[in-house]
Design a protein that fits this description.
490 residues, alpha+beta, 8-stranded mixed barrel, 4-stranded antiparallel beta sheet, 17 helices, 19 strands, globular
């Protein structure tokens, strides 16, 4: 077998990858891997068949070069080169990612590690679980590998429907809403087209809602409709994008706080073991909680809340204009500069959002918007994790109600856990309880600041290894999938 550079160029193999393919065969004295005489070997047939399901492998089905069908229907010699190049590109994409977020397009394919390529080809003879095998090519995070394996099981040997539905609200057209909801459930495999009685429909709807991070109540609300609208192909690409976000992450340390915004969960890990999990409330779509990396540096008991100017001018001002006793009732103090002023002496009708000159601070207490505990970490967005007096939001499935900060359920238990493991910390879990009982404002600086990561990963795996698609509440998935033209039905 001879490898001609002109032939590799004709196959549209990118230049850097083309050089690697040539070097790979040169080391092998140009002996084939996938073909024998004029036909593909069993290994070649298996690898070719796997490439027919790119989404199952964890990559978009329109990734440039990698998944063009015409090259895999050509002669065995051409297939030989293409199958090698595709495995090489797959390894690179699964390791470092396929998106260049700075340039807003696909990452170019460069040269690859020949030793890794050879090792993978050798391993393919003994692979028993392809989902696990492809997962090993990416980050060593258990969350990544569980998601990659679940996606393979979900999408392999499956023709992904590209039908995008537009289910109307029940109040707009109840008959059409139910008809399209039924069609969507059938299309997604939740409902048997031959068994569409009312009981089967609502049972299927409950399962569908649970798999989409929603309360299984059978109510066709806005987020259930949005999930029903999404095609299977689109959902799989959301899972692929979640895998990509894991690839963007630097390795987590042994102890850290992790907030996954679309999942509405906070988790704390010590020695890479999950110790505590808390429901959270995050920012509204108009006040989005940012993705960020920082370090938790202090825990504050009985915090003050100084309203950001945007909140004070847009919310506090209209409220006190309607009710002159609003400040006193809600324990707010008003300052002009550093000087406290009596709200009763101010003609509030003189002011509007653009000329609001005051600083508004809410005193500590049970009614304080930050609750009884605040967790501080440096960030340019001015957000933090805190308690809340509005406990009712934690029972909702969609918990995007804050101004951008993260409200945490059971923050006292989280704070006690952190303090009890903060080396040489004079403050104990009992001391924190005492401070709160005394209604004492105190900032407890940690001896060992804890790394904290706020992420936006919309697709995760359940305890039984199934994919769970949480609503893309900030439309951040949509932004990227539009960029690579996976939207909504193309």
């Amino acid at each position: 077998m001879a490898v001609e550079s002109d032939l590799l160029a004709t196959l549209q193999i990118p230049e850097g990858l083309r050089d690697s393919v040539y070097a790979f065969y040169k080391v092998r004295d140009f002996r084939p891997v996938w073909a024998n005489d004029s036909v593909l070997t069993q290994k070649g047939m298996i690898w070719k068949e796997l490439l027919e399901y790119p989404c199952a492998l964890g990559l978009p089905d329109n990734r440039p070069f990698t998944y063009k069908e015409d090259s895999l229907s050509s002669s065995s010699i051409i297939q030989e080169f293409v199958l090698t190049a595709r495995l090489a590109q797959l390894q690179q994409d699964l390791k470092v990612g396929f998106l260049d977020t700075a340039a807003n397009h696909y990452r170019p394919v460069t040269s690859i590690d020949l030793k890794t390529l050879s090792k993978s080809i050798w391993q393919m003879d003994t692979v028993k679980n392809w989902g696990h095998w492809f997962a090993q090519m990416g980050p060593a995070r258990p969350e990544y590998r569980a998601l990659a394996t679940a996606l393979f099981n979900y999408a392999y040997h499956k023709k992904l429907s590209a039908i995008h539905f537009e289910v109307p609200a029940l109040v707009e057209d109840s008959l059409r809403s139910l008809e399209l909801a039924e069609e969507s459930l059938i299309d997604k495999g939740y409902l048997d087209a031959k068994k569409t009685d009312s009981a089967s429909f609502w049972e299927a709807m409950g399962h569908f809602q649970a798999d989409n991070g929603l309360k299984a109540d059978g109510v066709i609300g806005i987020y259930t409709r949005k999930a029903l609208d999404e095609s299977e192909r689109y959902k799989c690409h959301r899972a692929i994008l979640s895998l990509e976000r894991w690839r963007w992450r630097t390795p987590f340390p042994e102890r850290y706080l992790w907030v996954n915004i679309p999942e509405y969960k906070l988790r704390i890990f010590y020695n890479d073991t999950l110790f505590s999990e808390h429901r959270v409330v995050v920012g509204k779509p108009e006040n989005q909680t940012p993705e960020l990396s920082s370090r938790l540096r202090a825990i504050v008991s009985m915090p003050f809340w100084t309203q950001p100017h945007s909140i004070a001018s847009k919310e506090f001002l209209p409220a006190i204009q309607r009710n002159s006793g609003y400040a006193a009732k809600n324990h707010y103090k008003v300052y002009r500069g550093e000087t406290e002023v009596d709200p009763a002496t101010i003609d509030w009708k003189r002011y509007k959002e653009k000329n609001f000159p005051f600083r508004v601070r809410q005193e500590p207490g049970n009614d304080n918007a930050l609750g009884l505990i605040k967790f501080e970490f440096n960030n340019k967005f001015g957000v933090y994790i805190h308690d809340t007096p509005s406990k009712g939001f934690f029972s909702k499935d969609i918990r995007a109600y804050s101004h951008g900060c993260v409200r945490c359920q059971m923050p006292d238990s989280l704070a006690r856990f952190i303090l009890s493991r903060d080396g040489r910390q004079k403050m104990t879990r009992d001391s924190l309880d005492t401070l709160i009982a005394r209604k004492e404002h105190r900032s407890i600086v940690l001896n060992k600041p804890i790394p904290i990561q706020l992420d936006y990963i919309t697709v995760v795996t359940s305890e039984n290894g199934k994919l769970v698609f949480f609503p893309d509440v900030y439309d951040r998935d949509e932004k990227y999938l539009k960029m690579i033209k996976i939207y909504p039905n193309n």
